[in-house]
# Entry
Amino acid sequence: MDFQLMIDSIPQLLEGAWMTVKLVALALALGICLAIPLALARVSKNPFLWMPVYGFIFVFRGTPLLVQIFIVYYGLGQSEAVRESIFWPFFKEAYWCAIFTFTLNTSAYTAEILRGAIQAVPHGEVEAARALGMPRLLMLRRVVVPRAFRLALPAYGNEIILMLKGSALASTITLLDLTGVARVIVARTFAPYELFIMAAIMYLALTLLIVRALKYAEWRLSPHLRPPRHSK
Amino acid sequence: MTIRNLVTALCVAAVVAFSASLSEAKDWNKLRVGVEGAYPPFSWMETDGTLKGFDIDIALAICAEINAECELVAQDWDGIIPALLANKYDAIIASMSITEERKKKVSFSEKYYSTPAKFVRKKGSGIEINEAGLKGKTVGVQRATIHENFLKDNYGEIIEIKGYGTQDEAYLDFTAGRLDLLLADSVALDDGFLKTNAGKNAEFVGPGYSDPKWFGDGAGIAIRKGDTELQAILNKAITAIRANGTYKAINDKYFEFDVYGG
# Structure
């Protein structure tokens, strides 16, 4: 193993890691904003609300992320209509194509996670809110959604980590994320072993950060499960 | 036979079969050839999955010449040398230029063809190939190629280089308008892109590049270092198919000129 090459590649790989972090963070942030209304529509009894959302989730969960990113990046670009539309400056950039695809993909999964969590909110708590005469929206805002968030957290943590790893597909559309940078260096040094091990270590480090942050968030959000602090 | 005996017998059979497959490779009566399959007209994959093209025909002709059974293995370009080193096949016949950088990792046969590299621009774009003309332009290139190295070393500071896994993906993005220029082998560009419907609005611009420092000494067959016997066999086979007319027949099937070069 060429350790010198591994050390020399660190600055470039860190630049790639920063691109990965930007992609994942932005996609997750936009994805969850989209997922909340989607999840609420998904649990609605109105077929005009839940049916399109069900279709959206079905499509994005049922197709590989790689195929989705190819459709958005290579597919849309082939159509004259798209190239002449006002959206082209957006879809012209590989970066925004990746953000767009990742956002839709993660929002589909997150919406499904939130749906499960909303339906798992203890019925008694919903009844209590109703008994207090809370209007529906207030009840959603104060009781159902916050409770659902806490219930969804472990599953959502999984989704964050899956998104981090899925973001490696950005390298297939010319973006220099962590995987992309590793591939570029491999292309010149023919040392896949060294470079991909370094990339793997950096992905692990990022995952570790996410896991720690989630653990803290879970601890913060479940004061009722902690032993009480005794005052003297 | 008890279950335990059966399992033991299966394990032994598997080990025997495995070691047999390991030991047979060195006789060169079977040649596993790594090819790309996304680089027309040198190699491409038909919609039914069969491999076609100049490189493929050369590979088959060489196998026939040395009386070896040919096994073609399609492999993505940027992993094509690592896969050779990992013993997934014994030779690469994929328009690979013979460069100093690659010689550090693999050995090459003599060249089997040599054509210059060129830029392609959109018709009417008026882009000129010089420092001022290239400044700020986005240039598409296949990742891990001599063309990418040439751009990085000469214009890396003033242009944006976009690297693609295959040449075909670079064509798609050029058509989509994400690229100002392409740099690739002139023959690949001409037959693989400019003469196709997708490339009808594009044209060559600038000189043909063939500086050996970046573009090497033509395309050769890459093999693992140490396979000197195979190297000699392949060199003899290239000379033989050049002499007996097989090369010319393949050449004329794809090109109107001699791609072997000077």
Summary: DSSP finds eleven helices and 13 strands in chain B.
